[in-house]
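Ops channel
N.P.: pipeline sanity check, posting one input/output pair.
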């Protein structure tokens, strides 16, 4: 259902105010379809607020944000977006398959044949490489496996846009690598647009494109290669720090 052309997300002047604090400050950016865009920056910079705005659950939003060709929060987008929060969205006392069966029924109550729903569940389990754990209780899985179950839930509706809020937080390097390999496979096999947030800068190297954030503003919107070249840096982390220092120097000179 790709009725949008060239851009999966487009923001102009996107602002979010919470109380007396401006959390997002007039953001302008575009996210290409079918690619992995990393939303990176330190904790508290506004990443989660931006993701809630994308999925349509954030209040007090001004400016414009177009998602898959429609205004963010449009009811028609609900079946087209998968959202994975930081906390795993699973029931510990159910098996992996029972979790997926339950959420599949919630997403499509009574409208699909039972065998079709079972096939959808089995495909989602296979997509996240949990077929060998399908009958294991979710509460007995490792942190990385529980994250995969949450991801499988988000994949049930075959979303065009997958929004992942810090999906690798707290995981060891091997599990983080495996999840990133999975994200790339999903983007390639399904042509899914993935927006993934992190405060771990080395994960930026795994993205096709980056939105670097600080204090509710976007410092850069570019590819990792272009950011490194532009700042003369060896890593994206060094490029980010260069941009931070540059922004601080501009603020200081303006005083």
């Amino acid at each position: 259902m790709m009725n949008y052309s060239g851009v999966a997300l487009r923001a102009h002047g996107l602002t979010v105010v919470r109380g007396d604090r401006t959390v997002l400050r007039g953001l302008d950016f575009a996210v290409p379809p079918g690619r992995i865009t990393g939303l990176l920056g330190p904790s508290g910079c506004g990443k989660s607020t931006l993701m809630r705005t994308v999925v349509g659950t954030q209040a007090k939003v001004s400016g414009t944000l177009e998602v898959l060709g429609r205004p963010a929060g449009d009811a028609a987008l609900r079946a087209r977006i998968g959202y994975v929060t930081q906390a795993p969205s699973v029931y510990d006392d159910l098996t992996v398959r029972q979790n997926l069966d339950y959420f599949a029924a919630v997403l499509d109550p009574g409208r699909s044949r039972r065998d079709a729903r079972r096939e959808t569940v089995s495909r989602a389990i296979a997509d996240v490489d949990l077929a060998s754990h399908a009958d294991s209780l979710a509460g007995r899985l490792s942190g990385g496996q529980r994250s995969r179950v949450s991801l499988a839930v988000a994949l049930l509706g075959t979303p065009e846009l997958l929004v992942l809020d810090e999906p690798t937080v707290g995981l060891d390097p091997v599990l983080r690598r495996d999840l990133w390999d999975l994200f790339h496979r999903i983007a390639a096999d399904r042509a899914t647009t993935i927006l993934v947030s992190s405060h771990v800068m080395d994960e930026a190297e795994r993205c096709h494109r980056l939105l670097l954030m600080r204090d509710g503003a976007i410092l850069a919107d570019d590819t990792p290669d272009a950011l490194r070249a532009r700042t003369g840096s060896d890593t994206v982390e060094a490029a980010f720090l260069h941009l931070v220092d540059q922004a601080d120097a501009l603020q200081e000179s303006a005083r």
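N.P.: looks fine end to end. The chain has a mean pLDDT of 90.
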